[in-house]
Amino acid sequence: MRYFEKFACDIAMRTDFLSDSIALSLKHKEGYVSNFTLLGIFANVLVILAICLDKKMRNTGTNLLLMNLAIADLFYLITFTAIWLPMVYYGSGGWYLPAFLCPFERYISNLLIIVSIFTFMAIAIERFIAIVLPIQAANLCSRKKVTWTIAFIWLFVIVFQLPYYVLYESHDITGIKEASWCGNLYSATFFWSTFKWVEFSLSYALPIILSIGLYTKIYFVLWRKNDFIHGDSQPKTKTNLPSANAAKEKGAKTADEKL
Hints:
Layout: H1 2-28, H2 30-52, H3 55-58, H4 61-90, H5 101-132, H6 134-140, H7 143-160, H8 162-167, E1 168-171, E2 181-184, H9 190-258
Antiparallel strand pairs: 1-2
Helix pairs in contact: 1-4, 2-4, 4-5, 4-7, 5-6, 5-7, 5-9
């Protein structure tokens, strides 16, 4: 236990300057941060209301995914605001909320971020199916299946991010300015290192690589379709010219014969 206490103090002292710098930076830019936060909250609320109040919009898989993305972003902005406001008020990067909120905040913040990332990945998959596989799109991207996909995303992430809730705590640390510090005393363990690598692979590397691959395929499919449409119209124009000329020549011959 002494090792963890020493480790926590060492980490806290090393991050003291960084936390204060972040807090002071937020304090100088609190107007910008608050304006962007309010704008983000307002925009996400508009998206949610627009989809919820329109029956036709609720029936498409893309709009359901967009609404899920807006919900996750909205709650993240609310959570983020609850964290940075005390930092700006006190001018320091410590933990000023009740101790029991420390693991809850870390858990909810990471959960909402991962839900947003997985929703972006689901949108990329849905767009790929709709454009590249249009015949199967009605079946694969039905409202019911998209709803189940959204439910699976939330359920998976809720379980996957549990280590944040279990391992993060608020600690009182003497000798530095912060009244308390919200952190993970087990961040140097093998379990946490393994978890972070798995989290990085599943939550960041996989969605980025998959989305880039899918959108690249979509681009080439649309490019080929566009090239086919414009390229197919040219031969028709050229093939029609001889027939038109032949008709004119035939008409001229008929007129000469009559004369």
